[in-house]
# Entry
Amino acid sequence: MKEMYERLGVREDIIEMVKQAEIALQLELKKIDVLADYQSLKVLNAFHKYQISEIHMRSTTGYGYDDIGRDTIEKVFAEVLGAEDCLVRNQFISGSHALTVCFFALLRPGDTLLSISGEPYDTLHQVIGIAENPSSLASYHIKYEQIDLVNDAFDIPRIQERLKESKVKVIEIQRSKGYSSRKSIGIEQIKEVIAKIREVDSDVIIMVDNCYCEFVSEIEPTQVGADIIVGSLIKNLGGGIAPNGAYIAGRKDLVELAAERLTVPGEGKEVGPSLGVNKSLLQGLFFAPTVVASSLKTAILASYLLETLGYTVEPRYCDFRADIVQMITFGNSDDLIHYCQGIQMGSYIDAHSLPIPDDMPGYEDQIIMASGSFTQGSSIELSCDGPIRPPYIAYMQGALTYPAGKLGVMKAISYLLENK
# Structure
């Protein structure tokens, strides 16, 4: 093995460091195994409830009428997510696309959208109208407001005060941190704030951006009062198998509104061909519990190692986790760039490519993005990216298997140290 590590460019001191780290992390890694068992049982029970069989893996084309596989898959996802209904489609380009469809489905001119988790992802700025775009919500006279978190917690007094002032149609909560330095938002926080919102307004639609968070906790936001949740299938629930797509889950009436925005009013969920993707979606969900577990284990290992090397990490290896994202604050652009390049070098695909900071659609700063993945842009596969702006934070996520994730982190740290 020593020769193979040398071929990968992993330093001997890092090999020994990882061995010691895995001994120290035994309890934390075992917790993840227990979580994976629970999520696997949840998926298995859903497969059994809807009697998944070969017929559900068949394909439709054209309009996609009477696609029994597509329709049953949506029932399985709804069961797993604790929702009344679910829209699971390969016609969604990304999680951001699904969020956009959801916004336009739920909001009308004159309505107000209120984010209570601060500013959303950079890729939603033009969707909402934070950054100017003639196709934004703002261009349809939909108003946007936000209330920032206070010490990584919801500002409940301010939220309740705002709800008393005038009608808000949709409250949006982004669980994962995006490119901010805040903590990701856990289920207990979601449960508490929903209860406080309902004290003031029982009708406001509560929408949760659940990207990166599925299967990290035992339950999902729909099970603590959220009306609708949205996520990507090239993240957690796709298990590294789904080639694209996203889901919208929650109240049946709201899911139908989203379906009619994605397809055609009056047709909604009844159309949309599966185009051969049904088997991949089912297999992806089957693998998702263990793939999410691998991502969490990789994040825990990276957190422990980089903290040991003196970097600021969030969450720490022993902290509660709400998503699969590991934040590493490097403090300078060189270390950020070298770590991301090391992740690319330790990937299975495109390891020979060297990522460099560049402009990307939807982002205001240059981004460095390492993603040596089987599926383009997949962030359930080991990837690492970050904006080139102070304090120079890397956001690492994913790993289809823990051994692959571990090797990627070992290579990245070795390359980082070699370039200090």
The first strand starts at residue 85 and ends at 89. The chain has two domains: 2-40+286-418, 58-276. DSSP finds twelve helices and twelve strands in the chain.
